[in-house]
Please model this.
Amino acid sequence: MSQTSSNAPLSRNVSEIIPRLFISDLSFAENPACLIQYKITHILSTLPEKVHQPPVSVLPVQPVRMQIRVEDFPFAELAAYLPTTTAWINDALSRDPNSRVLVHCVEGISRSTSVVAAFLMAQYSWSPQEAIQYIKSKRRVANPNFGFIQQLHEYGRRSLGRTQP
Model:
């Protein structure tokens, strides 16, 4: 999405990774003005706590939501969720050309980056390193913890049938 002066203050917290797929922090995901401005239709939350949802009266349309409850620790289980999150993102983007998917965690650095990296691996046959480097080119703060990177390799082997170094 092109950034204009009217959305510059909001854009610090969100990054468009590929068309219609965004990564953000929690403050962006809980802000009705942000969700409306970026026309977010789907929200994937990747944190253990309950996410505040704006009242129905505040948003013109409530986004479709999914949450996986994952801590941001290297040994927290993430790989088991990746086939589901990848399918959910793919379904959201492929069903409607107007859908806009937001994946977030608390800071938009590790968990959300890992989930989007898994999607990119499945979508483009990328290695974990390729997916993460691509995301970092769009979102400088992206930096999955080492355990999540190992789990992306596991996801590539088990779910995508790839042999990776």
Observations:
- Helices lie at 8-11, 26-29, 32-37, 82-95, 111-124, 128-138, 146-158.
- The chain has a mean pLDDT of 90.
- Residues 29 and 123 are 24 Å apart (CA to CA).
